[in-house]
């Protein structure tokens, strides 16, 4: 299978010139003038947002979207766009069965809209790209949290602006828990760690530089807003929540000491069966929850989380875990085995294997770039807010065949459906591994791939987007709309 790194190697400068403007090519061939020794600054953990008030079944929050200054590099003030002044924004802790209401005030000079990625929410609170908050105005978003526990995230989604506004900082984590799952023997507290990864380019003054589609010249990887940080860990089992909030960067994570991950969750929550894995693929907007065992690592040594498909050597080592003391805790902890787990080895593991549904319709969507205009298209059409590309009766189950038609240019894509978690049936006629099957809301498409997904639209009524989550592609029209209507 052609991966992104292979595609870049095979792509010629002449082929790129057909697609990308001269300004972008010049930027792609330039070097980042700022250098910082790797693993010289500590990882920062985004603060947890506190409710302004609570009722018996609802938590209420206030957020302010505004331009602010943030110290990405030590001693350098970088202009960013933020939620509540954070880069990334504050983390919202939600619980299944308790609604969350967020009042978002837009203190920027441009419009903004907020999408809770992966959430089952009413259309009025989905953060539709054409439903922005005007500068100086506010909007109330209501999230019912009537879905399984999952690592979700929120971000700006204003059409034609989403790529740049997310790139400059408008994203944050939303961690949904389920009281039923609290009995699982998983690490918690300080051993449950959020890691948000993204690509960036900083100029000689430490300011973020945004050039659309400039995947070759974003040479800095930030983790929770910090470049190549270190994180001090104890000799314990850790739960890492990995979120790719990049516009364009693709990751294939591996631990430098060769240790395995135990993947326990995907985009939409816990896997049907945890999976022992040597590497974790994470494309833009995808999430994975993994357990990493530092108990056998000698104190005083370090382990690096690496991206083995990095396009440059300086982007290979992402974060360094510095292992200190602290042995096993009081309660028993899981062991990451050297063979695949089966569900019964973790008592109380939640069921994530819905019964097969009767498929009512199959649709086909082809993603490709127009080499003349540079516009990213779905079925040869750019986004039109007045057009509905799929009308779906409530309760229906559909199969969508997704085709990456950009094999000649070697351009990867992802597909994200709002509202639903779907099942990946197969890729190029072959079944996907279990850990990449369900629950998913974003799926990877290598150049030339044909991927079939199955989704059931049985929750909300209304109009929702679907789009490539390489956000620089979405802002250039690689987006459509589906509308769920009442069953006749």
Automatic annotation (TrEMBL):
Q: Which Pfam families match?
A: Cu-oxidase, Cu-oxidase_2, Cu-oxidase_3
GO molecular function terms noted in the UniProt entry = copper ion binding; oxidoreductase activity
Q: Coiled-coil stretches, from where to where?
A: none
Q: Which domain of life is it from?
A: Bacteria
Q: Which InterPro entries match?
A: Cu-oxidase-like_N, Cu-oxidase_2nd, Cu-oxidase_C, Cu-oxidase_fam, Cupredoxin, TAT_signal
Residue ranges constituting the Plastocyanin-like domain according to the UniProt record: 68-179, 231-295, 376-486
Family, as annotated: Belongs to the multicopper oxidase family.
Q: Which PANTHER family match?
A: BILIRUBIN OXIDASE, CUPREDOXIN SUPERFAMILY PROTEIN
- What name does UniProt use for this protein? Bilirubin oxidase
Species of origin: Amycolatopsis orientalis (Nocardia orientalis)
Which classification does the entry list for the species?
Bacteria, Bacillati, Actinomycetota, Actinomycetes, Pseudonocardiales
């Amino acid at each position: 299978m052609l991966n992104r790194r292979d595609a870049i190697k095979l792509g010629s400068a002449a082929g790129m010139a057909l697609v990308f403007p001269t300004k972008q090519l010049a930027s792609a061939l330039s070097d980042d003038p700022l250098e910082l020794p790797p693993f010289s600054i500590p990882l920062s953990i985004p603060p947890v947002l506190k409710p302004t008030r609570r009722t018996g079944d609802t938590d209420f929050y206030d957020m302010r979207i505004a331009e602010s200054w943030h110290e990405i590099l030590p001693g350098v003030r970088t202009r960013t766009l933020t939620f509540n002044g954070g880069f990334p924004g504050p983390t919202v802790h939600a619980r299944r069965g308790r609604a969350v209401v967020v009042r978002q005030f837009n203190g920027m000079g441009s419009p903004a809209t907020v999408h809770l990625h992966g959430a089952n929410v009413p259309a009025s609170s989905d953060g539709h790209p054409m439903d922005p908050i005007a500068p100086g105005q506010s909007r109330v978003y209501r999230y019912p949290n009537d879905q399984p526990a999952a690592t979700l995230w929120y971000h700006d989604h204003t059409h034609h602006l989403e790529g740049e506004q997310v790139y400059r900082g408008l994203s944050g984590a939303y961690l949904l828990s389920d009281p039923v799952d609290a009995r699982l023997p998983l690490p918690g507290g300080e051993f449950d760690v959020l890691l948000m990864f993204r690509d960036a380019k900083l100029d000689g003054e430490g300011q973020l530089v945004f050039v659309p589609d400039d995947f070759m010249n974003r040479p800095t990887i930030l983790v929770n807003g910090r470049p190549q940080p270190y994180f001090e860990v104890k000799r314990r089992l850790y739960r890492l929540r990995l979120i790719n909030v990049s516009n364009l960067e693709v990751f294939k994570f591996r631990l430098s000491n060769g240790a395995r991950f135990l993947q326990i969750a995907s985009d939409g929550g816990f896997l049907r069966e945890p999976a022992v894995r040597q590497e974790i693929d994470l494309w833009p907007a995808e999430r994975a929850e993994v357990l990493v065992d530092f108990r056998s690592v000698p104190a005083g040594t370090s382990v690096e989380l690496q991206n083995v498909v990095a396009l440059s050597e300086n982007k290979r080592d992402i974060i360094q875990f510095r292992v200190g003391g602290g042995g096993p805790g009081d309660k028993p902890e899981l062991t990451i085995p050297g063979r695949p787990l089966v569900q019964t080895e973790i008592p109380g593991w939640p069921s994530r294997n819905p019964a097969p549904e009767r498929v009512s319709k199959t649709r086909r969507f082809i993603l490709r770039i127009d080499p003349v205009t540079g516009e990213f298209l779905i079925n040869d059409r750019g986004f039109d807010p007045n057009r509905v590309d799929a009308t779906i009766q409530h309760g229906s189950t559909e199969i969508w065949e997704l085709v990456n038609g950009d094999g000649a240019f070697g351009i990867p894509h992802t597909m994200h459906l709002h509202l639903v978690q779907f099942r990946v049936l197969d890729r190029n006629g072959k079944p996907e591994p279990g850990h990449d099957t369900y629950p998913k809301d974003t799926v990877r498409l290598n150049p030339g791939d044909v991927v079939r997904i199955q989704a059931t639209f049985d929750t909300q009524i209304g109009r929702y987007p679907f789009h490539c989550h390489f956000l620089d592609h979405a802002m250039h029209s690689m987006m459509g709309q589906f509308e769920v209507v009442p069953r006749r």
